[in-house]
Amino acid sequence: MIFEAEQPDALMPTVGGQTALNLALELRDKGILDKYDIELIGASTDSIELAEDRLLFRNAMDEIGLRSPPSEVVNNIEDALVAAEKLGYPVLVRPSFTLGGSGGGVANSADELREVAARGLNESPASEILVDMSLLGWKEYELEVMRDYSGNFVVVCSIENLDPMGVHTGDSITVAPAQTLTDKEMQRLRDMAREVLNKVGLATGGANVQFAVSPEDGEVYVIEMNPRVSRSSALASKATGFPIAKLAALLAVGYRLDEIPNDITQETPASFEPSLDYVVVKIPRWNFEKFTGVRHVLGPQMKAVGEVMAIGRTFPEALQKGVRSLDIGEPDFAASQGSDSEALRVPTAQRLFNVASALYRDLPLSTIARETGFDPWFIQQMIDTVQLRQAAVASSDGLEQLDRETLLGLRRQGFSDVTLAQLLETDEPSLRRRQQELGLRPSFYRVDTCAAEFEAKTPYLYSTWEEDDEAEPTDQRKIIVLGGGPNRIGQGIEFDYCCVHACFAMRDQGFETIMVNCNPETVSTDYDTADRLYFEPLTAGDVLNIIEEENPEGVLVQFGGQTPLNIAGALDAAGAPIIGTPFEAIDLAEDRERFGDLMRSLEIRQPAGTTANNREEALAAVAQIGFPLLVRPSYVLGGRGMAIIYDMGGLNAWLEENLDMVGLPLLMDRFLENAVEIDVDALCDGEQVTIGGIMQHIEHAGVHSGDSACVLPAWKLGMVELATVRDYTRRIGLALGVRGLFNIQFAIHDDEVYVLEANPRSSRTVPFVSKATGVPLARLAAQISAGHTLSDLGFMEEPPVDGFFIKEAVLPFRKFPGADARLSPEMRSTGEVMGHSSRSGHAFVKAQMATGTSLPTAGVVAISVSNEDKGEIARIASDFNRMGFELVATEGTARMLDVVGIPVRMMRKEDEASPNVVDMLARGEIDLVITTPTDKQNHSDGSLMRSSAWQYGVPIITTLEQAAAAARGIRALKEAPLAVRSLQTHHGMQVG
Fold first, then answer.
1. Which residues are CB-contacts of 895 (< 8 A; sequence separation ≥ 6)?
2. Strands 752-759 and 740-749
3. Nearest CA to 628 among 607, 658, 606, 653?
4. What local confidence, expressed as pLDDT, does residue 228 receive?
5. Which of 267, 797, 806, 881: disulfide with 847, CB 3.0–4.6 Å?
6. What share of residues in the chain are helix, strand, coil (percent, to 5)?
């Protein structure tokens, strides 16, 4: 449809990841590229197939004399078992044509192989897996390379994995440039990478080649080659200042590398290979705590939801900065002494900290190297860091006796303000004052792509503690924008969108813009988004160093989500010029009791609730509030630990399960069952409030807003309810004293409107609302922060919405086999998509298609719902029956449907004898699953059916509201085909 509308001349799939490559092949196979006479640029379909098809690639490597692991390509489980017998266990399973190692795994036995192979075959679009000889424990390297149509070839970056083979590179701590290769070994990998590209036939652009190197004898195997920009390409681009994706696009349309100037130096061409005189460390960010019952072991299938990058003059400095960038409560690598050290051999999210714990127990280097597979060079660097910390503790006579040389040594090793203040038994402000007395301050070096051989014209900076300083701050009016840090569940690229638009707005206002962030995946950390970029941890100490260097007119903390807000208090106390919404307003909204007092003074309803500071207070609060209860710890992202409790037994169980968070203030609210939830994004200038959009959640209360689909405009609210929501929004924004964006969540229960919470900052829904309405809310908010009013900006009326826009969550359950796919108050989505149409049903279908779980228009619908949902499911089941679907249901649901005259076939539950619902899913006999828990207290009920549906790629719906929306969508799809148009056309914008 898009080809028909746009009539493009060419298609470039190499910058869209694995999804784009797979789609390019599908378009070729269906004859669509030929039909519309579209040229594929960047890589041919032959090259894509050769690189992505495991058998073809292995044979190609054999032809050019490069070794790849002994392996067998198979298309079924029985052949996989035969292959494993030949190769010997353990074996590695790698599906063809998948992203992030999806479906991959290590099998140590035939039983494990059956499970891993089944998952891999299901994940592979070609139903093909490679069963590899295990290279567990081998060292892993990647080369990010580029070539043009003339054959010019450059190695952009060499990357060394700290973790050995067996851990997906996206889950491994990685270091650039490679630290433990000799020049001769590096040249060998370089030559091999060039041979791989020549054989695969990549026309132009960037590629990633992965190698395994034996730590025993240096033997090298080629693991794979990705003929596209990859996750590692983003890291390499940020590590070197060499914009791989941008150059790949230019090469694809015919430029040569020697014709493209280097943006950083503005003197050298892109054919000059980057040279680094610093060290970059990438550390993944996980959210295993969101998925109960899932093994936390890392393997060939990537499970990280984000990552951080840190730059230092040495590996220890970069490692320490990387750890505190993670925002997990660890100020430094060497500060971690409490982790379990007995599981060094098992790759987990905690293994780095297990190593620190082992070092404090004086475990020998050789033992740590053997157990972890880490190269001894890295372990020695970690030993030096721990020993320096121990020496500082042993010799410390307090802050006033601290000498310059000792402090400088600790700083150069990457130790943070937090750690040093703890070591010296003082606070961070006192430490900083003593540092100034000693004449110490950090310096800032530039990323220049050429190891300082040429001057960097683009200010892309990192901190260190050397004598020189390359920051060269200007005397212009300037604004610092604080980014969101690593992506994690509850805080993702939505906030990066807001930060980027804030930078653009401030630049338009005549300010020099300064971006601070530590996330290599983001647009905000492109060197040309802001005028100046500091790739630094988002801690109070690191940000204050930048503020002291730059002396900005203002600091914006409201666009990067919760991370900047968490340090806003410390920045404010240190005198940082926070502009826009003042810290007092932020603190008022975060403080439960003060915000409650404000709502009472405004005569705005809230659910009955209180704050408990310990177990005793929590138990006592029940008498005041009653059941059902919504409980959640304070100061956590994405609803961590949030749950609905129905009785005292459930509360006691929750308190036992969440002991690690019981020390936090516990928020306890009366749960408004079956309430309709509403999200509102709005702007306030202190005098006026203008609403940007009112969204209605499809799922009722009980599903976290980040996991719930939502509709703009709110499609089922009455005029009175909408008027109340608008009135409350205006009054709350003005009462809080917001200057910029704010978000309010409401619940409508028994025709009453309740306020759940207010956030005086950018929200997760701002990009969605902005795209749906055509109004750049984040840009306007930044202008308000700079002193403009809504009247100045001409934004005084709530924008109309043409058609329906639906936001849907992207859930990662396929990455976590065994995880219960039931939606709950705890957020678990890792992204979101948007669908738009003039009909709500079509918009919903598009949103589902975008998540990769297209709704069927025919086939079998399996239904299993709780007793309280049986009355409502009858109407939905009747809709599916009228549309020609066959219905199967578990015993209780089937009997109810039969009683009301709906044709249904009975199926057995997951815990009943075969053939049961899980068997039917495995055999492909079910096309859609609708299930709600049969017991609200028993979250595990039906969990195997839900996880199996995800494993076998069957669309699954776990709420009645979404089931009804799905029925509407399928009906709309059967009545009329989908149509497309660009957002620019929709909003009547001029393009070009």
1. none
2. antiparallel
3. 607
4. 86
5. 806
6. 40, 20, 40
